[in-house]
Amino acid sequence: MNNYTVLVVDDEKEIRDGIEIYLKNEGMTVIKAKDGIEAIEKLNEHVIHLIILDIMMPRLDGIATTFKIREEKNIPIIILSAKSEDMDKILGLQVGADDYVTKPFNPLELIARVKSQLRRYVTLGTYEGIEKVINLNGLTLDQSAKEVTVDGEVVKLTPTEYKIVELLMTNAGRVFSINEIYERVWKEPCFNAENTVAVHIRKIREKIEINPKQPRYLKVVWGIGYKIEK
C-alpha cells in the first residue's frame, strides 16, 4: 500500500508498540499517543490517514476522542474494545467510528481491517491528498480548512494574506524575494510590487505576531526578501 500514516492510541505501551511492528511491516508510518488528549495534539501536528483508538483510556477516552475528531475530520477510526465493553463499542460506532476490533485481537485481522478502511477512504474520494497541517512553533497552517492559527487561536486572514502565509509556511526556511512572492500569489508578472507585498506582509505580522516590530515568525532578510522560520 501507499505510505499511509496511522495514529495508534492506547494507554498500554506494549499494545502501541506491538501494533506499530505490524503496521511498519506493511510499509506504513506510525505515530503513537497514550490517550485522547495526546491523540488530538498529534492530529494537529501530522497528516494522519487512519486512527486505531482504544476505548478505555485516562484523561480523554476513546468515545469522547472519536466525537471530538468527528467535529472536524472524516479520517477512518478503528476502535479497540474488550469483550466486556460491548455497549461502549456500539456507542463508538454511533459517534462516528468506522469499525472495531475486540481485544485480545489477531494482529493480522487488525491489519486487514486497516487496509480495508484505507481502500474505502481513498476509493470513495473522501481522502484529500492535499490535506496537510503544518505546525511551526505554534503557528499552524491547515491547508484543507484554509485556516491559520497561532497558539490555537484562529487568525482571520484575507485570501491574499492566506496565500502568502501558505507559500512561506510550505517552504519554511526558504527566502522569497518580493517579486517571487508577487508572481506566485497574484499569478501575474511583477511590476513595482514592493509596496503591495510590503503592505500585506505588515498586515500579516499585525495578525500573527505578538510584537510585529520584533517578529517571531515572519522574518525579513535584508536585501533579499521574506521567510517564515522553520
Automatic annotation (TrEMBL):
Xref: InterPro entries: CheY-like_superfamily, OmpR/PhoB-type_DNA-bd, Sig_transdc_resp-reg_C-effctor, Sig_transdc_resp-reg_receiver, WalR-like, WH-like_DNA-bd_sf
Domain OmpR/PhoB-type stretches: 131-230
Keywords noted in UniProt: DNA-binding, Phosphoprotein, Transcription, Transcription regulation, Two-component regulatory system
Chief localization: cytoplasm
Gene3D superfamilies, per database record: 3.40.50.2300, 6.10.250.690, Winged helix-like DNA-binding domain superfamily/Winged helix DNA-binding domain
Organism superkingdom: Bacteria
Annotated GO MF terms: phosphorelay response regulator activity; transcription cis-regulatory region binding
Domain Response regulatory: 5-118
Localization of this protein: Cytoplasm
4-aspartylphosphate carried by residues: D54
One BP annotation, GO: regulation of DNA-templated transcription
PROSITE patterns assigned to the protein according to its UniProt record, in alphabetical order: OMPR_PHOB, RESPONSE_REGULATORY
Keyword Hydrolase carried by entry: no
DNA-binding region in chain numbering: 131-230
Record-level GO cellular component terms: cytosol; protein-DNA complex
PANTHER family membership: REGULATOR OF RPOS, RESPONSE REGULATOR SAER
Record-given protein name: DNA-binding response regulator
Organism: Aneurinibacillus danicus
